[in-house]
Amino acid sequence: MLASVDMKNAKYATSIQALEPRLQAIVDLEDMVVELLRAFVDKTMKKPERILFYRDRVLQGQFVQVHRDEVAFIRPACKKLYATYVSKITPSSKATSTPAQCNVLCNENRFHVGQFLETGRHTVLLCARCTRSVFMVPAAF
């Protein structure tokens, strides 16, 4: 998992976990989110007001499971960092590597779908070291 740790979305921190074979669920997601939130706060001296959670390679029939088992851990992670901390969350899952094809699982930030996709495209277009189009967040590439 990786997260932006600056306001310009140019520097990233990572949290790595080995997954069990054939298991798509991220088991220690809450601890990973806490680690990345701390990295953001350490760099910016602010708590993120909004969290955009992009989840890649989710099978069509597993969107509900991802929302239930993974997205549900983001809010407790915020509370673990600061007891009164509440951030607006907009998670999405993609079954393909094309950023235009995603399913928004909940939308507390009240993004229009076009705004959400545009944000994803801008993040992808920040990748300057590629000689062709890349449909992946630059830091993960």
Automatic annotation (TrEMBL):
Residues 1-90 form the Piwi domain. Gene3D superfamilies: Ribonuclease H-like superfamily/Ribonuclease H. Pfam families: Piwi. This is Piwi domain-containing protein. InterPro entries: Piwi (IPR003165), RNaseH-like_sf (IPR012337), RNaseH_sf (IPR036397). GO terms for molecular function: nucleic acid binding. It comes from Linnemannia elongata AG-77.
